[in-house]
Amino acid sequence: MTLFAGMPGSSGSIEVVCGPMFSGKTEELIRRVKRAQIARQKVQIFKPAIDNRYHETEVVSHSSLSIEATPVNTSVEILQKVYDSTRVVAIDEVQFFDENISVVVEKLARRGIRVIMAGLDQDFMGKPFGPMANLLAIADSVLKIQAICTVCGAPASKTFRKNPKQQEQVLVGETDLYEARCRAHADFFGEDQDQLAFFVNLNESRSKTQNL
Ligand code: ADP
Ligand code: MG
Predict the structure, then answer these.
(1) Which CATH number do you get for residue 110?
(2) In angstroms, what is the span from residue 211 Cα to ligand 2's centroid?
(3) Residue 3 covered by a domain
(4) Which residues pair with 16 in a beta bridge?
(5) Which range marks the domain in which residue 127 is found?
(6) Average pLDDT in the chain
(7) What is the pLDDT of residues 125-151, one digit of tens each?
(8) Residue 21 CA: which ligand is closest?
């Protein structure tokens, strides 16, 4: 039986695979895409044009798995490029998209499409990356995976920028710029700042009490 959007049992879904760099998000995205292709479902894969680290028109993992993808500049472009016959839409490096991506993927899911996305949940400062917080909130399923800390070998949830002087959130790079790190080896800088703020507050409240 062919299912059409709106019919019971035909509802699409929103899946997010997240974690730090090198955690295997792209590998997992490719694995899900390949299984859908084995099931003979029509799949379209998109990536942000800004991410041309390995290839302009391929999604490539750090372990050299690859799959053809359409580069797009905005989230609305995805909506325009999805064919009526498409059953599965996969989007890699989804953190680089604009905030409209949540509306776009909701629309696709409402049309009965399975949407699979992979992206960095946190930026190099440990803050939610671009549209990711919204996407995680609207997702039906979330897989959060860890890499291996390059310092101690523990599971790593953070992406560490080797040069903290580079402050912009979006700075496309590889092992030249980034490392996977566990919490203990990722936030020395943040810890120093937190301690400083704590002692400033403590001294301020002490001097206020002395003036009473
Ligand atoms: P992501 O898309 O999350 O950046 P990929 O799927 O492209 O990750 O790559 C995952 C692969 O990266 C692993 O299977 C492994 O071969 C390799 N790798 C390199 N550095 C690390 C690391 N620090 N921790 C885990 N895997 C790593
Ligand atoms: Mg990746």
Answers:
(1) 3.40.50.300
(2) 56
(3) no
(4) 117, 142
(5) 13-210
(6) 88
(7) 999 999 999 999 999 999 999 999 999
(8) 1
* pLDDT (average), residues 42-48: 97
In a domain, 8, yes or no: no
Residue 4 belongs to some domain of the structure? no
| Residue nearest (by alpha carbon) to ligand 1 atom 21 | 22
Distance 51 CA to ligand 1 centre (A): 17
Upper half-sphere CA count for residue 4 (Cβ side, 13 Å): 0
Residues with CB under 6 A from ligand 1: 19, 21-27, 61-63, 147-148, 150, 180
Choosing from 28, 58, 77, 93, the catalytic residue is 93
Q: What is the pLDDT of residues 73-102, one digit of tens each?
A: 999 999 999 999 999 999 999 999 999 999
What's the CA gap between 2 and 126, in Å, rounded? 44
* Per-residue model confidence as pLDDT tens digits over 155-190: 999 999 988 778 787 888 777 889 999 999 997 555
Q: Which chain residues have CB less than 5 Å from ligand 2, an ion?
A: 25-26
Two tokens, residue 160: 């560490």
The fraction of the chain above a pLDDT of 70, given in percent, is 85
Q: What is the pTM of this model?
A: 0.86
Annotation says 58 is catalytic = no
Residue 5 lies in a domain: no
CB proximity list for 82: less than 8 A, separation 6 or greater: 44, 89, 108, 113
Question: How many domains in the chain?
Answer: 1
Question: Which of 6, 25, 8 lies closest to 17, judged by CA?
Answer: 25
